[in-house]
Amino acid sequence: MKTVLITGASRGIGRACALAFAREGYAVAACWHKNEAAARSLLDELSALGCDAELYRADVADPASVEAMAAAAEKRFGHIDALVNNAGIAQQKLFTDLTAADWDRMLSVNAGGVFHTCRCVLPGMLRRHSGRIVNISSIWGISGASCEVHYSASKAAVIGFTRALAQEVGPSGVTVNCVAPGVIDTEMNANLSPETLAALCGETPLCRIGSPEEVADAVVFLCGGKARFITGQVLKVDGGFLGG
Ligand code: NAP
Predict the structure, then answer these.
(1) From ligand 1's centre to the CA of 151, what distance in Å?
(2) Structural domain of residue 167, as residue ranges?
(3) Tens of pLDDT along 22-44?
(4) CATH number at residue 121
């Protein structure tokens, strides 16, 4: 049985990924950070699907915490076949209001988290000459977004990281890709006003925002056999928002 480790699995896109992988027959190592109740309810849902699943608490910005999670998951499941680096935070602020602490936290969770998790999980994939890594970036990491300079920079870093690592580990049988979601219906966007949401829908060729399940479908595809010749790519799941 294949095992996937998903960070930020307690809510939103990560949760939808956990359920989608479970339906594909994967065992699921689900990482959560602060929301234990949501993580426990995910575990119940996974178990109801007959999925072999385990929860791990970790702050992806903290290397020691990630090392402990990865070691525990590898011990429990024997191997990790797919890694989904999904955990992330967002914040809207004028650039002139950003503090050094805002910048440091954003970069250490959104970009540092991807680095720490890959550093711990990749060696096992290299040993087995097989593995799939999918990093969740954002369309703002491609285009940049006003009042989200630190978020956009962190997500652009994830794209550069993905392209570089894909080149380095391709010869070892490991693929590394990015999914760049557009505006997705999760708690991350709970602060958007109805007017802002309507404007975003209006700018989207498919005339709506996306669902976490639609992002999860792309992630599962990139981890599956049908994506075996795809690496170093950034797949936008944005209803056409950014265009070609
Ligand atoms: P969300 O609903 O806010 O969920 C965020 C998840 O990340 C939660 O499971 C949370 O865990 C976890 N997390 C946050 N900080 C963490 C940390 N330091 N260590 C470990 N886990 C942490 O967000 P989402 O909308 O699903 O977003 C998921 C990913 O997609 C993020 O990387 C985000 O940037 C990206 N994305 C989202 C959108 C969108 O429109 N929603 C668009 C583009 C990209 P706890 O709840 O347990 O604390």
Answers:
(1) 12
(2) 3-236
(3) 999 999 999 999 999 999 999 99
(4) 3.40.50.720
